[in-house]
Amino acid sequence: IIGRWGNFFNREVFGEYSDGLLAMRLPIEAVRNRDISENLRAHIVEGTNYIQVHPTFLYESALNFLLLIFMYLYIKHRKFNGEICLLYLGGYGIIRFFIEGIRTDQLKIGDTGIAVSQMLGICLFVFAVAADIAVRLWMAKKPAVQSAEEVSEKSSSQEKQN
User: Fold this and answer.
1) 3-state secondary structure the chain
2) Residue 45 vs residues 42, 49, 131: alpha-carbon distances, Å
3) How confident is the model over 104-123, as pLDDT tens digits?
């Protein structure tokens, strides 16, 4: 979360044109020419020297913070060890998928038009959901394990009956 703030202030990566509340303006001379898409060029106002874009790292930082809060609140309701890790992987994956969708400097898989980071994000999400379902199914089939206290109480009550 905090590391993304450094990326945001360095203006390392940004999204397409935006006129939204959180849009940021970047001087054209501070941006690599290849990162200015046709859509961004179409929205440059004559007489200005900036582009107005989505602050992707700001979005990512805020969404990761919301994910952290959700994980913290959910921890009381977890059903198995590792569930919070799967929740993080799935949440981070879906966040990455959407953030990468608005970036201008995407690395594509060949000529597919699919961004590598989007594919990684969706794979993380699918893995986390599949692993969560698999563990829950395994737990449902597994016989209930008795605690040491329950076994001790059960054996002592049987001894008393004898």
Assistant:
1) CHHHHHHHHHCCCCECECCCCCCEEEEHHHCCHHHCCHHHHHCCCCCCCEEEECCHHHHHHHHHHHHHHHHHHHHHHCCCCCHHHHHHHHHHHHHHHHHHHHECCCCECCCCCCEHHHHHHHHHHHHHHHHHHHHHHHHHHCCCCCCHHHHHHHHHHHHHHC
2) 8, 8, 49
3) 877 888 888 888 999 999 99
Tokens standing for residue 9? 């202030």
Rounded to the nearest 10°, the torsion over CA 19, 20, 21, 27 is -40
Residue identified by tokens 């590391």 is: 3
Q: pTM (2 decimals)?
A: 0.76
Largest CA distance in the chain: 97
